[in-house]
């Protein structure tokens, strides 16, 4: 169990993916300053109901730890940061500080150890290479099954509720099955079919 500050947002951060943010609220400016000074992480969680600036928004209990990988003072006077998603976590309890920053006790969630991509989902590796060619620094061949799924979820036009649902699923196979169904619904995989299971 560990304690981390929370940054509730109307977006979902996934392990291995990046999130760019503009920071303007004092509570989050202080949080980012502390994280940069201590080289520590904060937690990104999806807001189910409420606003990002509200103190009583309803948030999801599963989120992703984030580490600041880059920052800049923007021309508009705001602080801009890039955060990299690291690990999924479950919130055990949380409390608000006097400045409105939520501090949570969290349990880090183990990631699926499946490395090889099952035959029926091999097409996802090709799909990732196709749609992520401009954003990715490595080939999908160098990624684990879990990493491929997270990057597809990040790059595809999926709504936040579905991304959150996929984040919460512990097993790669189950996550891939739901993503596969969504790819069919969106018509994205008409040109690249799953391999036959025999």
* Oligomeric description of these chains: single chain
User: Quick one: biggest sheet?
Assistant: 5 strands, mixed, barrel
- Spell out the CATH superfamily of the largest domain: LON domain-like
Q: Average pLDDT value?
A: 89
Under the CATH scheme, which class of the largest domain?
Mainly Beta
Euclidean distance between termini CA atoms: 45 Å
The neighbouring-strand order within the major sheet is 1-3-5-6-7
Count the beta strands: 7
Strand fraction band? 25-35%
What is the radius of gyration?
18 Å
String of helices and strands = EEHEEEEEHHHH
Which structural class should the secondary elements be placed in? alpha+beta
* Count of helical regions: 5
Q: Tally the structural domains.
A: 2
At CATH level 2, the architecture of the largest domain is: Roll
Q: What is the approximate shape?
A: globular
CATH topology of the largest domain: Archaeosine Trna-guanine Transglycosylase, Chain: A, domain 4
């Amino acid at each position: 169990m560990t304690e981390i500050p929370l940054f509730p947002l109307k977006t979902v951060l996934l392990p291995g993916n990046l999130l760019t943010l503009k920071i303007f609220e004092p509570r989050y400016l202080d949080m980012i300053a502390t994280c940069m000074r201590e080289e520590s992480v904060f937690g990104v969680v999806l807001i189910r109901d409420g606003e990002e600036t509200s103190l009583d928004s309803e948030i999801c209990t599963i989120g992703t730890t984030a580490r600041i990988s880059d920052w800049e003072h923007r021309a508009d006077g705001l602080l801009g940061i890039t955060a990299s998603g690291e690990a999924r976590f479950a919130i055990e309890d949380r409390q608000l500080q006097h400045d409105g920053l939520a501090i949570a006790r969290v349990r880090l969630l183990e990631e699926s150890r499946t490395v090889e991509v099952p035959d029926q989902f091999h097409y996802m590796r090709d799909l990732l290479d196709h749609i992520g060619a401009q954003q990715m620094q490595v080939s999908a061949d160098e990624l684990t099954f879990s990493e491929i799924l997270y990057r597809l979820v990040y790059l595809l036009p999926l709504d936040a509720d579905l991304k959150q649902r996929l984040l919460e699923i512990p097993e790669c196979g189950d996550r891939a099955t739901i993503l596969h169904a969504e790819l069919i619904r969106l018509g994205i995989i008409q040109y690249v079919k799953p391999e036959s299971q025999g």
